[in-house]
Amino acid sequence: MLIKKPSDIPPSEITPEAVYLNRRSFMLGAAGLMLSGETLAALAARKSPLSTSEPLNSLKDITSYNNYYEFGTDKADPAANAGRLKTRPWSVLVDGDVAKPRRFGIEELLKFPQEERIYRLRCVEGWSMVIPWIGFPLASLLKQVEPTGKAKYVAFETLQRPAEMPGQQRRVLDWPYREGLRLDEALHPLTILAVGLYGNPLPNQNGAPIRLVVPWKYGFKSIKSIVRIRLTEQQPLTSWNLAAPDEYGFYSNVNPAVDHPRWSQASERRIGEFFKRKTLPFNGYAEQVAGLYRGMDLRRDF
């Protein structure tokens, strides 16, 4: 299967600059409705060579078609219900097998050098988008707490606040939502903590105020509204693996050769397009990340 490099994408598939700027202008008018009354401020971010040149999905697509079960199980529920979430004050505790455990306030996290990372997102359900995230490498944060020699994995935890996250009032999953990565995955340059999209702060329904983005894995691995990051020696428990271990593995790398038990993963529907397209190994990032899994059986370690 052909894996496209940015240089292989024809000019006809690249979003014109004027269209991108118009979308960013639209964000200024729309995002304020989604940020719990916070003052809207554009995020300064430099361009990244790690971005794809594929056409972006619209702001409407990205903010109205979401999986975020803390706010409901329908795709429209997060946009309808996330407005009650208060994202200030906010902090993230980073602890576990580290030399310098520390709690970072969101204001500190926003001071990390930010980049625009335009990434493909592939949902395990068989749909995909292209999203212009704003964020910084997770490695930058982890280096500040100095992982010890015992640290082999990184565990993540979402906020648990049922009064503001009505989906948590139902036992759809074992709350709070939990995810995990191997330490080498967490330190990979493609792995980021996102604080914005389309040049402005994250809307609540997209994981405000800070979320993980791991573009070569299925979307549920990119945990939202993070309040704790813990480095561990043992592989951490993860929410969907606990709920359905035969369907959702710890690694959950995008793999068109390994089907979900209930549907094929060989193709995907890009939101906004009519025809399906072939799914690429590691969501098109195989050149950068396949080496992390050299020697592994990706059918067994799915």
From TrEMBL:
Note on how the cofactor is bound: Binds 1 Mo-molybdopterin (Mo-MPT) cofactor per subunit.
GO biological process, one term: protein repair
Domain Oxidoreductase molybdopterin-binding, residue spans: 86-240
GO molecular function ontology, one term from the record: molybdopterin cofactor binding
Pfam families linked to this entry: Oxidored_molyb
Matches recorded under Gene3D superfamilies: Oxidoreductase, molybdopterin-binding domain
Keywords from the UniProt entry: Metal-binding, Molybdenum, Oxidoreductase, Signal
EC number: 1.8.5.-
Reported cofactor(s): Mo-molybdopterin
The keyword Oxidoreductase is assigned to this record: yes
Catalytic activity entry: L-methionyl-[protein] + a quinone + H2O = L-methionyl-(S)-S-oxide-[protein] + a quinol; L-methionyl-[protein] + a quinone + H2O = L-methionyl-(R)-S-oxide-[protein] + a quinol
Keyword field contains Zinc: no
Binding annotation for Mo-molybdopterin: 66, 69-70, 123, 158, 206, 211, 222-224
Subunit structure: Heterodimer of a catalytic subunit (MsrP) and a heme-binding subunit (MsrQ).
Family: Belongs to the MsrP family.
Main function: Part of the MsrPQ system that repairs oxidized periplasmic proteins containing methionine sulfoxide residues (Met-O), using respiratory chain electrons. Thus protects these proteins from oxidative-stress damage caused by reactive species of oxygen and chlorine generated by the host defense mechanisms. MsrPQ is essential for the maintenance of envelope integrity under bleach stress, rescuing a wide series of structurally unrelated periplasmic proteins from methionine oxidation.
Protein name: Protein-methionine-sulfoxide reductase catalytic subunit MsrP
Organism, as annotated: Pseudogulbenkiania ferrooxidans 2002
